[in-house]
């Protein structure tokens, strides 16, 4: 799927691909394309989507993280006066900023918030970057996955095959990632990394 030279380009922060807008290597065009994808995905009935556009508050992320769920995926764990704690079972879609590719997997998130204002007081979430085992979806999300893949294809994105994702890099490099040691880099690490 990717050549050694393409992976080296992505690691150095250059966009690759033969489809618009990745072939332009223009970060603003690519970001605008991902935003259009986000708003198109929001049209899927009953789907709630949250996006992390700001590189997790610091550093640089080679991807935009989308978190998707439905109202029925939210469970109220505790309620006390104006405070509510919830658990959300949803799916993460990481959309690469440097290649027309995504990875998907499930995540369970928790939030404690003030009902009157919507202010989030605390919360917890996972990431797809902490292991290749995360790139799986259970039967619960299969119908939603099909709808999302259809939209991704309309925007010329491909889902990174897990067999490709787990291939070791066959060259020495340094990737600004917190999730894997340099001797263990995989193709997924070249495409999806976050440096704090």
Q: Order of helices and strands, N to C? A: HHEEEEEEEHEHHE
**Structural class, from helix and strand content?**
alpha+beta
Low-confidence stretches: none
pLDDT averaged over residues: 87
Helical fraction equals 10-25%
Number of domains: 1
Report on the architecture of this protein.
This protein has 196 residues and is an alpha+beta fold. Helix content is 23%, strand content 30%. The strands form two sheets. Strands 1, 3, 4, 5, 6, 7 and 8 form a seven-stranded mixed beta sheet that branches. Strands 2-9 form a two-stranded antiparallel ribbon. It is globular. The model has no long low-confidence stretch (mean pLDDT 87).
What distinguishing features does this structure have?
5 helices; 7-stranded mixed β-sheet; two-stranded antiparallel ribbon; 23% helix; alpha+beta; 196 residues
Write the layout of secondary structure elements.
Blueprint: H1 4-11, H2 27-41, E1 48-52, E2 60-61, E3 63-69, E4 74-80, E5 83-96, E6 101-114, E7 120-124, H3 142-154, E8 158-159, H4 162-165, H5 187-191, E9 194-195
Parallel strand pairs: 6-8
Antiparallel strand pairs: 1-3, 2-9, 3-5, 4-5, 5-6, 6-7
Brief digest:
Helices cover 23% and strands 30% of the residues. The chain is α+β, with helices and mostly antiparallel strands. It has one domain.
